[in-house]
Amino acid sequence: MSDWKNEIKSRFDAYIARQEEINEVLKELLKSLEVHPYNFATSMVFNDGEERSWTISIANKEVLITEKEITNSQLSYTEDLNSTEPLEEKGDLSESIIEVFLKKFKWTIAK
User: Fold this and answer.
1) Longest alpha-carbon distance in the chain
2) Domain residues of the chain, as ranges?
3) Positive or negative torsion for Cα 97, 98, 99, 101
């Protein structure tokens, strides 16, 4: 048990590294929407709580994206519907966040 301090530090470092990794990809993706021909106003606010999340705004639409949603998007699952064990990661972080964006950002026209 003498190594517990190193274990705590390692966990904290991994926690911060994951947050920074997601922050950087989100910033990059949002920045790409701010230029021609898209010209969307975008913003991102990090919400540190029990479940880390980001409030993302594109144009006039604001959504909440959680770390869990991003992580789930990165994982592949077995064919067995009763199993929730991931087989392996799929794609990179950018592709996974784009997948979450496409699920969350939907504009509808009132009829």
Assistant:
1) 66
2) 4-104
3) positive
Collapsing DSSP to helix, strand or coil, 5 comes out as helix
Please report the beta strands in the chain, taking only residues with DSSP state E, as ranges in sequence order.
42-47, 53-58, 61-66, 75-77, 86-89
Other beta carbons within 10 Å of 67:
14
Tell me: the pLDDT tens digits for 66-94?
A: 999 999 998 865 555 566 665 565 668 99
* CA 46 to mean position of chain CA atoms: 11
The CA–CA distances, whole Å, from 34 to 38, 63, 103, 111 equal 6, 17, 20, 29
- 3-state SS class at 3: coil
Single-letter residue type at 111: K
